[in-house]
Amino acid sequence: MNFIEELRWRGMLHDIMPGTEEELNKGMVSGYIGFDPTADSLHVGHLTQIMTLIHFQKAGHKPFALVGGATGMVGDPSGKSAERNLLAEDTLQKNVQALESQLRKFLDFDCGTNSAEMVNNYDWFKNFNFLDFIRDVGKHITVNYMMAKDSVKKRLEGETGLSFTEFSYQLIQGYDFYWLWQNKNCKVQMGGSDQWGNIVTGTELVRRIGKGTAFAITTQLIKKADGNKFGKTEGGAIWLDAAKTSPFKFYQFWLNTTDDDAKNWIRIFSLKSQEEIETIEQEHNEAPHLRLIQKALANEITIRTHSEAALEKALNTSNFLFGNGPIEFLTQLTNEEIFEIFEGIQQYTFAKEQLSAGLNLVELLAENTQVFPSKGEAKKMLQGGGVSINKLKINDVNGLVNISDLINETFIIVQKGKKNYFLLVAE
Predict the structure, then answer these.
(1) Interatomic CA distance for residues 265 and 84, integer angstroms
(2) Which letter does DSSP use for residue 160 in this model?
(3) 25, 115, 199, 243 - which has most CB atoms within 10 Å?
(4) Is it the case that residue 415 has pLDDT exceeding 60?
(5) Is the dihedral of CA 13, 18, 20, 23 positive or negative?
(6) What is the pLDDT of residues 227-277, one digit of tens each?
């Protein structure tokens, strides 16, 4: 299956410039996608473009991942209702390095003629002065042409307007395409559908300055079935950096998708074949409660983004919180990881020295912490078998808690019923 056919059946293709598919069918073609370093990590919203590059390489073509050290200083107005805050150069360089490191996890940089390459547009813009740019590049694109772009029109019609800095962005991105065409024989630029205007500006510069031909492909912007923005949760963006979004939370994001979203997303974010995916869908439809599509998607994408070890830890964490996983699992984690697991769950602190001589469990739950509003309620639920301490049911209202009960010398895990967790922290 060729690259365009792959994008089509996966539901990824949005628009394609005439002649592009024919060019790709002639043999190996070089193409690129740009990533602006607006943060020190990519997030799941970038995964569509990462998957596009992966499929491009798997089809035998040569992918270039451009990290925008220069364009990141300007800010792309596409899809934005207001101008971005401009970042300091040292922050941008730190972000560039982080993005380069992440992209290397997904693409093969050592597979022969179609090995992936990383480029940074700061390398060709750093010595390009303003007068040279407006003379050598700006004169080839009319203001009328630039004003006709949707990203420009929407901002001009809005309340915030459009600064000259952002207005110039499509020229800068267009020059990226021209530079890569001239210096790297890069004939195709790919991106989300909101990038079409910027991409075809590049093909125009190739035509007008280089007297050559370049091509464009855009992919669908991913949305949730309910219309909400993909990749956003109540806790914010889902990052690819494990320090910003833990592998457990990353795994849970995919696992908790709706059936409608999962059926679309497994085509986009999985490398499974059409036959494999259709088999999973059929099995899922026969037993939807098993969530086979969600599990297949979550497993594969967590391994690709993090590792098999990270997936195993995520599965063990899920089993601990939502199944019958043993308390010993927590002793394999750092305190920081335990806090991460219990983020959003009610936490109480108490003085560790109180455990030295043994602390009455009812006092711990109702006085030293507020797991229960009163001793009476604590006793009642204990006697009814509704309280677990470190995964063990306790019904002795006279029971004591000791230093030895602390996990990692810091934590006590309390459950009221099966699903109500509390994290007690000894300080």
Answers:
(1) 29
(2) S
(3) 199
(4) yes
(5) positive
(6) 777 876 666 789 999 989 889 889 999 999 999 999 999 999 999 999 999
Per 3-state DSSP, the chain is made up of helix, strand and coil in percentages (nearest 5) of: 50, 15, 35
Residue type, 26: K
Q: Which helix (H) or strand (E) holds 283?
A: helix 274-286
Q: How far apart are CA 94 and CA 96, in angstroms?
A: 5
| Position 82 pLDDT exceeds 80 | no
CB burial readout 383-404, b (16+ within 10 A) else e: eeebbbbbeeebeeeeeebeee
**Does residue 316 sit in helix, strand or coil?**
helix
Q: What is the pLDDT of residues 142-158, one digit of tens each?
A: 888 888 877 788 778 87
The per-residue pLDDT of the chain, averaged, comes to 89
> Which 8-state DSSP code applies to residue 391?
T
Question: CA distances (Å), 246 to each of 153, 299, 300, in order?
Answer: 39, 14, 16
pLDDT over 70, % of the chain: 96
Distance CA 378, CA 124 (A): 68
Token pair in block for residue 8: 């089509």
Residues in the chain: 427
Q: Check the CA dihedral 258-262-263-265 and report its sign.
A: positive
What positions carry a catalytic annotation?
Answer: 38, 43, 46, 80, 84, 173, 194, 229, 232-233
